[in-house]
Every structure is written in structure tokens, then in C-alpha cells.
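Hey, quick one: can you model this chain's 3D structure?
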Amino acid sequence: MSFLLMVSGGLLQASIDKERLKGTTSHDSVIFSTPQAILANVLGESRTLMADILWIKVDEYFHTHEKGYPETEGALGEDEVTEIMPLLRLITWLDPHFIRAYRAGGWHLSFNLNRMEDGKKFLKEGINNNPLRYELYYDLGWVYFTVEKDYRNAIYYLEEARRRRVEDRLENKGILILLASSYENMNDTEKAYSIWQEAAKIDPGDPIIREKLTR
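Sure thing. Here's the predicted structure for all 215 residues.
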């Protein structure tokens, strides 16, 4: 563990946006940055196991400090988030398919550290490495909707999330509510209403959805 942390400390000084290299992986769609390529060569197939171990440490940290996940209320302090971000960065270098690390990192960069551009860049990197997963499209749509009030981009990413398989009922409803609200803000009431109807099929008793459909 100490070796990994020492390696990550050095690698974090390198820009992840420079000189992207093709890494050796069973997933051809993944584009490794230079630090990822180094870790892939050093650790080989064991890098995903190390990512799992590091996530356990992150999970313990979140639970110790409470309210560390995007789906909970409240937020960690800036010092606490700054402390944990290198581990989240390292996890995604070790395993570019580690969705929860991308979600946590994108959330904390965007909301707790007020580094919006870095947060969006982190989420987009995750999307590039996991184009078939809905979660990071949803999170990026959330950022555009809630913080930037950029409803056009919110619609784009939320529609992309909607097109993918969403097994989690609550997240599926959340995508549709945010998407319908985005269309409302773009004055496309007809499209918004059709999506409210779709959301009602998931949870017909939701008071927000019922109010939207009775107007």
C-alpha cells in the first residue's frame, strides 16, 4: 500500500491530459494516460485488485467522516476532500472501469472543491472509458443542470443516460425527473410532459410527478 501511495504521489505531478498512450488491456476502448500506462506496466493484471483495496480505504474514510457519497445529504469539508482525491484519482488509473470512483471524484471536484471544469473533465474521462454505462452521463447532466444551468448540455447527457440500461429504479426516476425539468427550462413543454408520463410509470405515487401531470 505504501508503495502505491508513493507511486501515486509522483504520478499526480504529471498532467493526465498530455501524451495519451494506448495501454495494454482486455478492453480495447480504454485509452490510458501516461501515469496509467506506467501503472499497467508495473502492476499488470493485479492493478484491478489494488484498485479494489484502495476503494475499501476510501469507503472507510467516507464512513468515518460521514456524508461522503453523492447520494447522501451534506458534504465533506474541503480539507477532507483534498485528502481523499489522490486515492480516487489513483483508483481510476488502476482500473478505468471503476465507476464509483469516477462518480465520487466528479462529485467532490464539482461541488465540494468548486473545481467545476476539473469535475466535468474527470466525468468525461470516465465516460470515454465506459461509454455503455449510464451513471457518468447522469452525473454530468446533473452538474450542467444544477450548477451551470446549462439545460441544453444537461439534456444531451441525460438523454444519453436514458438510452442506456438503468436497473436502479430510483436513479432511473431521477434521470427522468431531471430530464423533464431540463426540457421545461428550454420551454419544450410537450417533450417534458411525455417524460413526466414515463416517470409516472416508475413511481405513480411520487407527489412531484403527480403535480406535473395534473397541471
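One thing worth noting: The first helix runs from residue 2 to 11.
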